Amino acid sequence: MKIDRRKPLTARVGIVSVGHHVYWDQFEGLLDDMHAKSAVLERKVAAHGVEVVNFGLIDEAQSAYSVLPKIRAADLDLLMVDMVTYATSSTFGVLIRALDVPVVMVALQPLSALDYAQGTTYMQLSNDDFCSVPEFAAVAVRMGKRPPEVIIGTLHDDPIADAEIAEWCRIATVYHSLRNARIGLMGHVLEAMLDMHTDPTAVTAAFGSHVVLCEPEDILRHYLNPDPARVKAKAEEILRFFDTPDPVSDPVTMKLTDGDLQTAAKAAVALDGFIEEKQLDGLAYYYEGLPGSDVRTVMTNLTVGNSLLQAEGFPMCGEFDLKTCLAMMVMDRMDIGGSFAEFHPIDFDRDAVLVGHDGPHHINIAEGRPSIRSLRKYHGKPGSGASVEFNIKEGPITMLGNTLTAEGRFKFVIAEGESLHLPVPPTGNTNTLGRFRPDIRTFLKRWVAEAPTHHYALGVGHHAQTIKKVADVLGIESVVVSQDD
């Protein structure tokens, strides 16, 4: 079973082709061929569910100046410069200097190799896609910008180039979400967690996201006056999606009680209403409330609703962890999950380590059906109630930590590993046994040396290099933790 997204993934990708105006009178039909090449790229990009805006072909400085206001007005998440043939950098310098949008050069030549014996100048110009890439990169640096990324390959039957186009469409989706997101922040940092503090203004500066400051009473209002039909439907949804196993070895756990189910369903409905009211795209929270109060009841029983929302593409973090909420959004928009995780005990016998948390989790990346257990107590926190337990899918995994440097700048700490298909403790928490090269001791030392926070986002597949490109687009420092011997 898989939960559908609350909102479809989207981004706006622009395409502008470049050429050299002198060629068109010299070689009849070449301009038409260049437009046809650009149309192929447009179809490839549109196939990935993004909105495409094609600005046509520019071939000298005047046309570049003319198209610039249109590109600015389009509010793009990514601009692809289609290098259909050689073009002077006067077409590009105008754009790269003025635009504050990720730019990728695309050099896809129609032929895998020229027919040398029958070669013509027309054939060469039709396949000169890479010719001006170095020139454009140099001019970008002269304009004070980073050299743009470049996709190199053939226009047809090139799975490597097609995969890079797909990757950049995913990156555009991440960028779109981050710069338009409204992330709720509620409560306060869990006592003594100094690594959790985050300046909301710094979030807006680095990611573009707006941080909405919320009060626990904003959820409580919905909790105290719920629609009984919605609570009943939510309880039925929970039972359809989750197993409710008997306790095994942990005396803290019980089989899900009807009271905990009803409280979880009521809290989940309240959470839905609160999110709709505030128009949020994510939430980081922690609040305890007074013992016995309705505030404590609702704020300590959000885990089940959290997990459903996370699977719908709404990242949620407990313990007030705004930084990891953003990391979870990055992974979710890449469609690879993004569970809230930290390191648990090391398994020296298997050269691995448990990774997980007491919630929330991205249940779309669960191995099999997730479970709910009732807990008599939440370790280290007040309250009791329903808690979600499952294993992450077996196979490759990626971790993304979002930390802060001494200068107050964000830094991505990234690593890849493997999720092992082995049992985990039946404690009502999500865990998976992760293996990392070259060995668990060395890997953990290297991870710690990058000064991450103790939380991170956990997703499926190996995607470290794509996440590093996301960091580059955002202008954020990043490091992939080495796993070499």
From TrEMBL:
Question: Which spans are transmembrane here?
Answer: none
What Pfam families does its record include?
Answer: Fucose_iso_C (PF02952)
Q: Note the SUPFAM superfamilies from the entry.
A: FucI/AraA C-terminal domain-like, FucI/AraA N-terminal and middle domains
Outline the extent of the L-fucose isomerase C-terminal domain. Answer: 379-477
Q: Which GO terms describe its molecular function?
A: isomerase activity
Q: Which UniProt keywords apply?
A: Arabinose catabolism, Carbohydrate metabolism, Isomerase, Manganese, Metal-binding
Q: Which Gene3D superfamilies match?
A: 3.40.50.10940
Quote the InterPro entries the UniProt record gives.
AraA_N_sf (IPR038583), Fuc/Ara_isomerase_C (IPR004216), Fuc_isomerase_C (IPR015888), Fucose_isomerase_N/cen_sf (IPR009015), Lara_isomerase (IPR003762)
UniProt-recorded name of the protein: L-arabinose isomerase
Task: Look up and give the organism this protein is from.
Answer: Tessaracoccus lubricantis
